[in-house]
Specification:
The structure holds 2 protein chains of 2 kinds. By secondary structure, chain A is mainly beta. Helix content of chain A is 0%, strand content 49%. The chains are: A mainly beta, B mainly beta.
């Protein structure tokens, strides 16, 4: 079945450091890929997405490229800030949610950025 | 409303009690999903509604779990005779196209 594997955390970085959180997936066909972020005490928020191979999703300085050849969707940011401290989830879905396609999530990676 | 809302945000139940968790989706969103998120894990699918029809309930862990959306808007997830293993955060999401928008969740603790 479909699944997502994320690098285990927690990850601790100094402010302005480079961030990579690895995500690989197993799926049939051509899923859409997502990164969600969960700040303390809040719900999941969509960070970025990519719907086809070689697409790059980007938002708030974060980027991820849909690599079908390596079945990966690694999250990167060039210079992290304290405010980026959160849990990051990689996810996939097989198609529009309007047809009942559920999301499959990774286990999450906790990021702490220290000043 | 502006986003998905859920209530209560926190619920403590004694083992054996019944609980009801509410979800108000984004206005106009036809699709609604429930997920269960155990501590330190990612969300796992429970059930899916399209309007008032429950089209997939394959993720419900037992027959103690029941969900409804009678008018195609607000949804309620009910857990009967709660057990300690039911302790988790229950997330509701409504969707447009291929993106799901999540509520803040209800943290259920069963003592």
């Amino acid at each position: 079945g479909d699944s997502v594997t994320q690098m285990e955390g927690p990850v601790t970085l100094s402010e302005e450091a480079f961030l990579t959180i690895n995500c690989t997936y197993t799926a049939t066909g051509y899923p859409s890929l997502f990164w969600y972020v969960q700040y303390p005490g809040e719900g999941l928020q969509l960070l970025l997405k990519a719907t086809k191979a070689d697409d790059k999703g980007s938002n708030k300085g974060f980027e991820a490229t849909y690599r079908k050849e390596t079945t990966s969707f690694h999250l990167e940011k060039g210079s992290v800030q304290v405010s980026d401290s959160a849990v990051y989830f990689c996810a996939l879905t097989q198609g529009p949610s309007g047809t009942g396609n559920q999301f499959y999530f990774g286990t999450g990676t906790s990021l702490t950025v220290i000043p | 409303g502006a986003g998905v809302s859920q209530s209560p945000r926190y619920k403590v139940a004694k083992r054996g009690q019944d609980v009801a968790l509410r979800c108000d989706p984004i206005s106009g969103h036809v699709s609604l999903f429930w997920y269960q998120q155990a501590l330190g894990q990612g969300p796992e699918f429970l059930t899916y509604f399209q309007n008032e029809a429950q089209l997939d309930k394959s993720g419900l862990p037992s027959d103690r779990f029941f969900a409804e959306r009678p008018e195609g808007s607000v949804s309620t997830l009910k857990i009967q005779r709660t057990q300690q293993e039911d302790s988790a955060v229950y997330l509701c999401a409504s969707s447009r196209r291929d993106t799901q928008y999540f509520g803040p969740g209800t943290r259920l603790t069963v003592l």
